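Supplementary notes for students who missed Thursday's class. We covered one full example, reproduced here. Read the sequence, then the structure, then the short commentary at the end.
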Amino acid sequence: MSGEISLAPTEEMLQSAYRTHYSALRKKQIVFYLVFGGLVGLVLAAVDGFSSASHALKLILAMLLWALVVLVVIILLTRYWWLPRFTRRVFQQQSDLRHPFIVRWNDDAYETEIPSGKITTPWSDFYQWRRGKDILLLYRSEALFNFSRPLVKEWLKLPMLFRGI
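Structure (token representation):
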């Protein structure tokens, strides 16, 4: 299977890519903040001497609720304030994102061609992939990814994507 598409990245595309990227991190944040809140509540209950089980439970639940409120605020600030500013800055700084480029693929590799050159990456060099609502991220590491939008549905049929890359 092989193909080629021409992409003209936009700031909105980049924002969609980063939103998909950070959505996976958000799941880890939820677990971290709830565990942290529960532990703080447990420590407060221990410092209080566990005067009664109901009082200790109230302290733990209060800290879990506080951790949840902090988490919601962080998620909302990240999504609606920080992420748009971050992607705007990255889009302005990275000049190759402001020029159309060509993506080619076959059973062996993924190739990106921009006006200043091209790079061919064997599918085996990708660390993982993540599919968003309308975008596909191909990860070279936990922090570095290539994105494609519109979603190239043919890629989802490539066997290397389903063996975990």
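Commentary. The radius of gyration is 22 Å. Helices lie at 11-47, 53-93, 159-162. If anything here is unclear, bring it to office hours.
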